[in-house]
Each structure stands twice: as C-alpha cells, then as structure tokens.
C-alpha cells in the first residue's frame, strides 16, 4: 500500500516535472522566436534605409543630369521652354542658361515703364531718332543726286570735248589739207600771226555758233510743221525765253509767222514783235 502511494507520488512528481519542462521549453521557444523576430526586424529596417538612400542617390543623379542639360540648353529646352516659366523663381532660375536669362531680362526692361508719361517720353525719343535717320537718309540721297548730276556734266563735257576734237580734225582735213585749200604756207603764216590760245577760242566759238544755228533750224522746222494754235500755246508759256521765240519766228516764212502771232496772247506777241524789230 505504501508502495502504491509512493508510486502515485512519483508519477505526480514526474508529471509535474514534465509539465515544468514543457513550460520551460515553451518559454525558450518563445524567447528564441522573439529574438529571431527582433533580428529580422533589424535586418528589414536596415534594408529599408539602404533602399531609401540608394533611391535618393539615383534621384539626385538624375536631377543633376537634367539640370546640366537645361544649363547647357540642349535642344533649346532651357531657353525656349523653361526660361519664360522659371525666370522669376529664386534659386531655381540658376539652372537656366545664362544667355536665356539675359535675353529675358532685356525683353522685360524694354517695356519697363513705371508710368504712361515714361512710355510717351520713350516714344518721343524713338520718333526723334527715326526723324534723324530719315533726314540723314534724305541728305545722303541729295548728295548722291548731286554726284550723279556732276557725273553727267563731266560726261557731257567729255562728249563735247571729243566732238570738238573730231570737228577740229575734220576742219584740218577739209579746209586746210583739202585739194582746193589755199597753200599750206598761208595757213602757217596766219596761225603764226595770232595767239594760239585766241585761235582755239575763236574756233570753239565758231563750232558753238554752228551747233546753235543747226539747233535753231530744227526748232524752226518743228514749229513750222505744227498748227498755229498749238505753236502759239507753247510760245505763250516761254515768257522767260522770248528771245528764242523771236529767233524761231524770225526764221519762218511770213505766212507761218503771222498765223502763229495771231494765235498768241496780245502781250506776248507784242513783246516778241519788239524783239524781232530790226535795229535802226
């Protein structure tokens, strides 16, 4: 009986020990699991921090690349697209191309007028500059016209000089050296007897008079072929050169002259008649 009780006590003690042992094992497992969880959490936290910093570094690198592309104005993106938007944003506008910032500043300053009076004053200044430029252009045009006129006069002088030399040579050939000309010694004596300068002046006068007579003959033929009324209308407008009118009429036949004088105004006809009056 005592043995049975002792055996029961041993079983209870064994169960108690087993229960205590299981309880200790459960505590150890729980503690081990908690330690493993903490370790995993630490590893996970460190991994997240590393990922964050790597991502941040990548973003910074890309932002730096984009900033450089904008600063170098690759494809005109910095000056054409971002400059109008970011030019007034402090610090951020530092990434814009320098040339784009200067251009935008110049464009803004061109219209930076505080009041309407300032704008009007600027308009007056621009109008004055425009007027000065136009006056300078007009002066240059006048100067060019003067040069062209002088060039034409020089060209006419050259042509007249060439014509004079040609006619002088013709005079020598037709008058001095022709078969019917007087003896060459006579011309030699004559030209030796007068001053060379005077001889040239006399010759030029003769040539000019000849040309004038030929031109007058052309006028006489032209106005003689016109109707008296038309010729008279033209002569009435030539009040500043009535001497030429008198010469033309004097070279016409009496009938043509009378017909034209009859169609002219009485005042002009009287003045022309006075000029044509034979000298006593």
Comma- or semicolon-separated keywords:
mainly alpha; 83% helix; 10 helices; 280 residues; single chain
Topology of this protein?
Blueprint: H1 2-71, H2 77-86, H3 98-110, H4 116-176, H5 184-193, H6 196-224, H7 228-236, H8 242-251, H9 254-263, H10 266-276
Helix pairs in contact: 2-3, 6-8, 7-9, 8-10
Helix share bin: over 70%
Mean pLDDT score, rounded? 74
Portion in strands:
under 5%
Q: Any low-confidence stretches, pLDDT <50, length ≥5?
A: none
| Secondary structural class | mainly alpha
Distance between the termini: 205 Å
Kindly provide the radius of gyration, computed on alpha-carbon positions and rounded to a whole number of angstroms: 60 Å
Largest sheet: none
What is the β-strand count?
Answer: 0
Give an overview in words.
This protein is an all-alpha fold and 280 residues long. Among the domains are: 74-110; 194-280, no CATH class. The protein has ten helices and no strands. Helix 8 (242-251) packs across helix 10 (266-276). It is rod-shaped and about 195 Å long.
Outline of this structure?
By secondary structure, the protein is an all-alpha fold.
